[in-house]
Amino acid sequence: MTETHDLPRADATRARLLEAAIEAFAEKGFHGTTTRDIATAAGMSPAALYVHHKSKEELLYLISRSGHEEVLRLVRDTAASSADPVTALRQLMHDFALHHARYHTVARIVNYELAALEPDHLSEIRQIRHEIQREVRELVERGVAAGAFHTPDPRLAGTTLLSLGIDIARWYHDDGRWTTEHIADSYADLALRIVGAG
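-> structure tokens emitted (198 positions)
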């Protein structure tokens, strides 16, 4: 009975530590962040962090896995959202760009701190990234097969689209000149030009 009552509190504490890690990694980078920084931001003692997580790297892995799994769901859903490859790709790139602008802080950590992951964790994240790339490539290939897209290299086109969207997290700021919706619409239009649609 005690364990059942403690579970929500433990989950809340883990969530608080993850949020604190996101803030700290965004501000100082993974290597510049200490476990003390994370614990302090969460309002906890440094020793308390190890009650819930093995290491600072485990926090990065959890943030990265969650972020990549969310993007994989987004890509799969939008790729399957329409039988028309033009409509599907427009929606995919719109939502992909919107996600990387709205959640730029997490997206920056997820995509630019990969080298800090331990080999097993990095391998798992790379597999999810491979699935994301495959979904986009297959959508571009579907468009080429239907005569809707005209690109000699669907794999390169798909990689280009993903790279453009991911890079938004590097330069986007909430007080910038463009709204997230404007960026999403512009990237959707750009995606169709890259694959030679219409």
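DSSP finds nine helices and no strands in the chain.
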